[in-house]
């Protein structure tokens, strides 16, 4: 387990918008909102959606994140978005706690008091939207076949009660971020970075139903895929430990099962 508060920021999604064709940019409408009040416009900007009470759905000039792509925060002036279509967000960045990316949005622009608490001075009632930046995703699944005298990670996920209280050896994908703590999962999905061939990918996310893990040796992380600023770690490992299920385990009790590891048993698999 890793300890301490990690607040190293930030990756910054700052898209240089051109206002292609008849499109405006977020800079245009936030600089002179009165000029566009009541008009139907097409505008380019960075979309950010975050769940919560209240949630957040805005068009921004940029988004800053932690090094692992989580904790996205909008930068500078914002326009509240009503009725943003879910299908338009399918090709954007999708870390575990938000959706964000460069978009082109068509709708009716209005000035006033908008959003859950009326704190936004403008909004766009969205008619249609499309991603400007399309994110390609790559899946890295754990092996489906178990080694001799081992239990498949897929079997643990499917029938956890059959192994409750037992010592098991399995192979799966280790996944760690500050927001998730250590997990064992059936696979990792990562965004393919644009340009540079970065083996660790961008914004990796666990697949399946992750199992919380206690006792993973931090010094083995360097043998796996490590993100910028040590923002994330993931890779195939073999572990042995006591399996428990039917509770609330891991960070904030988010997971229904856990493995308490024998640290000496942990083996990164190339």
From TrEMBL:
Leader sequence residues: 1-25
Keywords: Signal
Protein name (record): Lipoprotein
